[in-house]
Automatic annotation (TrEMBL), chain A:
GO terms classed as biological process: transmembrane transport
Protein's UniProt name: ABC transporter permease
GO CC entries: plasma membrane
Family according to the record: Belongs to the binding-protein-dependent transport system permease family.
Keywords from the UniProt entry: Cell membrane, Membrane, Transmembrane, Transmembrane helix, Transport
Listed PANTHER family: DIPEPTIDE TRANSPORT SYSTEM PERMEASE PROTEIN DPPB-RELATED (PTHR43163), PEPTIDE ABC TRANSPORTER PERMEASE PROTEIN (PTHR43163:SF3)
From TrEMBL, chain B:
Location of the region described as Disordered in the Swiss-Prot/TrEMBL record: 1-23
Any one GO MF annotation of this record: ATP binding
Record's compositionally biased regions (Basic and acidic residues): 1-13
Lineage: Bacteria, Bacillati, Actinomycetota, Actinomycetes, Kitasatosporales
Protein known as: ABC transporter ATP-binding protein
Database matches in InterPro entries: AAA+_ATPase, ABC_transp_ATP-bind, ABC_transporter-like_ATP-bd, ABC_transporter-like_CS, Oligopep_ABC_C, P-loop_NTPase
Domain (ABC transporter) ranges: 27-261, 281-525
Protein keywords: ATP-binding, Nucleotide-binding, Transport
Protein species of origin: Streptomyces tagetis
A Pfam family matched in the record: oligo_HPY
One of the protein's GO biological processes: peptide transport
Length: 317, 537
């Protein structure tokens, strides 16, 4: 399969270029923001002399391209630089934030796949009947509710009124697994919209596949209903769902800022939000690199899966 | 045409030659009527399929062949009201080979997937330990019987990695593996070249020789003639005549049967006078390449020299994959990757469509095989036809519409049809509209790429007649008729035979057909003679 290998190599090269472009763009945008780390650090005493001193200490007074070149050189040696505000290495920030992001993300995916596929297949099997109408309308309705609104609603009802679950993850630090009950609400909110989009995609794909002549042929030749559904119809319906799943995993791993902020989870999204507020450029760029690489790798994986499932479509770079 | 005469259906039991020795039928259709939303698709259809015999359902498109064939499979269109009786005597599933075998092969699964599942069903009784090996053995045997010797390679492939012929054989292998006693083959040769047709015919004959009852749905008279033991002639959902094939061929009783089975009716013969004068189009040293999956390029066509005079029809004849379409595409500027020159009235045409100016674009027009795909389904045909004159000749819209209507009616398309959307026109009517659209550019060269393949014989003759008339009426027009079909050569003055990208023979049509000089041409013509030999007379 040298064709596929060449495709992977080409996509990785392209992905590297895309990541570089993202990092450059992020650097330019943070430069364009009013204020810098020195202003943020000066805090309540915005005395120009003091800001100048901090600026000199942080070596922010050098021209932008020099600072960027320094950072990029470090990156080539695997050094993501140090935070401007705390002096800690950026790599530590990422390592600390990754755990709290990964745990809810992994749980969400673990529930998302069976729930999304199950609902989609169920709806497709009963196309046009009550089960399908129920699933289709509920998924549409839930999909229309943004994460923050659903989060606020769930916290108000389940945590504050009924007191069943803790409203936030405050006080649990980065070890969320110590008390799994704090994870229930965030995972529910993270799950809500992806499950709807996945179920609807699987439903559409399955309905197409079940109506196809090749499924009719398999049925005609006496194969059992389950065998036809799972071995012959489902593989043909998977390709778009796999792509959607990759986008969802990418979205989850990049730290869903709204959800992390709402439940006070110290994940990557929170790290990003704080870093932007403090104009902590090295941290922002470190995150941009990580998110860029994640996106490239996940989408490449999804394309390979799609290629396996719909080989006729070929591979496009 | 006198409909009064034809409306009278003359049913006759398909009686085998010697009723005493006739095997019991394995499938029977009695008085079938299928109605969808008030439209009667078939009415009063009777059909008997006997083991080892080929029963052919013939008729033009829309005559109810497919509806009847699918009824044998227990499949009806959605919302259909069905009455009558379909009885499958041998209790076993019915095999199905559709017109496009790829449609029943799952694009996401390897060829082995369904074959293995079918074999497993049949061997369900075996203990698990022995089943695996037995399943593999059965699948291999079925593939071998379907003339696919290289089982290991074929089983690992995805359907799109197989040729059309291989796909058809895989579908046949499914039916054989199933142990089907009846196989329904829907238009198995439509759109195939003569050599492929001969192979498909052999495959189906082999199927019948195994004692399987073959129900052939076709409007391809060559194959029907070569294979059918019994014939059922359908028209507008009714049986107009049925009986043993040799009787219907030699003495058709119904006028419609006579019209349908008419032997390559001498459609308007071309003006035999050889065209003289300077060539309108010259091709010099043409070599066309295709990119070969990024691995470099492959030469697919070499035409050292080819001339086309005004008023002349040049047929480019060859099998699929011989480079015919590439030649047409080079002329029209649709295939850029070629060297050599294409001169129109002595002036070289730019290689790509993008570099040709309006008059050069108008001068070479292209009519595609799939007329339905060549029209926007949401807009009326007339506007789309008129657009050519507006775009390429700068004619005002109302003049263009008038001209389009004249051209359409001139080609035999009623005015009411011209105002409809493509979905409401038949394949033959749309092909006429596509021709009209190309003619509105006032082209010097018209490239017709397989425009009659997939049409039933009556419609095909109509379109070929239109082409002959065009040549007579417009003396500045030259026609390039790309075809694999020996039946579509009627309008041709000259024939160029292509094989594997090389012009193996070129000359006056009559000479090439009567005394071919190249072995490949002889082989092509022989297949016609073999297929076309009237059976039983």
């Amino acid at each position: 399969m040298s064709g596929v290998r060449r495709f992977v190599a080409r996509r990785l090269l392209l992905g590297a270029a895309q990541t570089v472009a993202v990092v450059l763009l992020i650097f330019a945008l943070t430069e364009a923001l009013p204020g810098d780390a020195a202003v943020a650090l000066a805090g309540d005493q915005p005395d120009p002399a003091r800001i100048e001193a901090i600026r000199a200490a942080l070596r922010l007074d050098r021209p932008a391209h020099e600072r960027f070149a320094d950072w990029a050189l470090g990156l080539l040696h695997g050094d993501l630089g140090t935070s401007l505000t705390s002096g800690r290495p950026v790599a530590r920030y990422l390592a600390d934030g990754f755990g709290p992001t990964l745990v809810p993300a992994a749980l969400t995916v673990a529930l998302l796949v069976p729930a999304g596929f199950g609902l989609g297949i169920l709806a497709a099997r009963h196309e046009g009947r009550t089960a399908d109408r129920l699933i289709s309308s509920v998924t549409l309705a839930v999909y229309a509710v943004p994460e923050f609104a659903l989060g606020v609603l769930l916290v108000t009802v389940l945590a504050l009124r009924l007191g069943w679950l803790p409203p936030t993850a405050v006080g649990h630090g980065t070890d969320l697994l110590a008390d799994p009950s704090v994870l229930v609400l965030p995972v529910l909110v993270l799950l809500s919209r992806p499950v709807c989009s996945l179920a609807r995609l699987v439903r559409a794909g399955m309905i197409d596949a079940l109506a196809s002549p090749y499924v009719a042929q398999a049925r005609r030749y006496g194969l059992s209903g389950a065998r036809v559904r799972y071995a012959h119809a489902l593989p043909a319906a998977l390709a778009p769902a796999a792509q959607q799943l990759a986008r969802t995993v990418d979205w989850l791993l990049s730290g869903v800022i709204v959800v992390e902020a709402l439940f006070v989870i110290p994940g990557l999204g929170t790290v990003l939000l704080d870093a932007v507020a403090e104009r902590d450029v090295p941290v922002v760029q470190g995150l941009a690199v990580v998110f860029g690489v994640l996106t490239v790798v996940l989408n490449l994986g999804a394309d390979l899966v799609a290629h396996r499932l719909a080989p006729r479509a070929g591979v496009a770079a | 045409m006198k409909n009064r005469e034809w409306a009278e259906a003359k049913d006759e039991e398909p009686v085998p030659d010697d009723p005493a020795s006739a095997p019991a039928p394995v499938a029977e259709v009695r008085d079938l009527r299928v109605e969808v939303g008030g439209t009667v698709l078939v009415d009063g259809v009777n059909l008997t399929a006997r083991p080892g015999r080929v029963t052919a359902l013939v008729g033009t498109s829309g005559s109810g062949k497919t509806t009847t064939g699918l009824a044998l499979l227990g499949t009806y269109p959605p919302g259909a009201r069905v009455s009558g009786e379909v009885r499958i005597a041998a209790d076993g599933p019915v095999g199905y080979v559709p017109q496009h075998p790829a449609s029943v092969l799952n694009p996401a699964r390897r060829v082995s997937a369904l074959l293995t599942d079918i074999a497993r069903l049949r061997l369900g009784r075996l203990p698990r330990a022995r089943r695996r090996a037995a399943v593999a053995r059965e699948v291999r045997r079925a593939l071998a019987e379907a003339q696919l010797p290289d089982a290991d390679t074929v089983l690992r492939r995805f359907p799109h990695q197989l040729s059309g012929g291989q796909q058809q054989r895989v579908v046949l292998a499914q039916a054989l593996l199933l142990g089907a006693r009846v196989v329904v083959a829907d238009e198995p040769t439509t759109g195939q070249d003569a050599l492929t047709k001969a192979r498909v015919t052999e495959r189906l004959a082999a199927l019948a020789a195994r004692g399987i009852a073959v129900v052939l749905l076709s409007h391809d008279l060559d194959v029907v003639r070569a294979l059918a033991d019994d014939l059922v002639v359908l028209r507008e959902g009714r049986v107009v005549e049925s009986g043993p094939a040799h009787r219907l061929w030699s003495a058709p009783r119904h006028p419609w049967t006579r019209a349908l089975l008419a032997d390559r009716a001498a459609s308007d013969a071309p003006d035999p006078a050889p065209k003289t004068g300077p060539a309108a189009l010259r091709v010099r040293g043409l070599t066309a390449r295709h990119r070969d999956g990024g691995r470099g390029t492959a030469e697919v066509l070499r035409v050292p020299e080819l001339d086309l005079r005004a008023g002349e029809c040049l047929a480019v004849l060859g099998r699929s994959g011989s480079g015919k379409t590439t030649l047409g595409r080079c002329l029209a500027g649709l295939h850029r990757d070629h060297s050599g020159q294409i001169l129109l009235d002595g002036v070289p045409l730019p290689r790509s469509l993008r570099d040709r100016d309006r008059s050069a674009l108008a001068a070479v027009q292209y009519v595609f095989q799939d007329a339905r795909a060549a029209f926007d389904e949401h807009r009326p045909v007339l506007g789309q036809v008129a657009r050519t004159a507006v775009r390429l000749r700068g004619v005002p819209a109302d003049t263009a519409a008038r001209e389009a209507l004249d051209t359409l009616t001139g080609l035999g398309l009623a005015e009411t049809l011209a105002h409809r959307r493509p979905g409401q026109l038949s394949g033959g009517e749309l092909q006429r509209a596509a021709l009209a659209r190309a003619l509105l550019a006032r082209p010097r060269v018209l490239v017709c790429d397989e425009i009659t393949s997939g049409l039933d014989p009556v419609t095909r003759r109509g379109i070929l007649g239109v082409l002959s008339t065009l040549l007579r009426e417009r003396d500045d027009l030259a026609l390039v008729l790309i075809t694999h079909d020996l039946e579509s050569l009627a309008p041709a003055h000259r024939i160029a035979v292509l094989d594997a990208g090389e012009v193996v023979e070129e000359g006056p049509a009559e000479r090439v057909l009567r005394a071919p000089r190249h072995p490949f041409t002889s082989a092509l013509l022989r297949t016609r003679d073999r297929l076309g030999a009237p059976s039983g007379s």
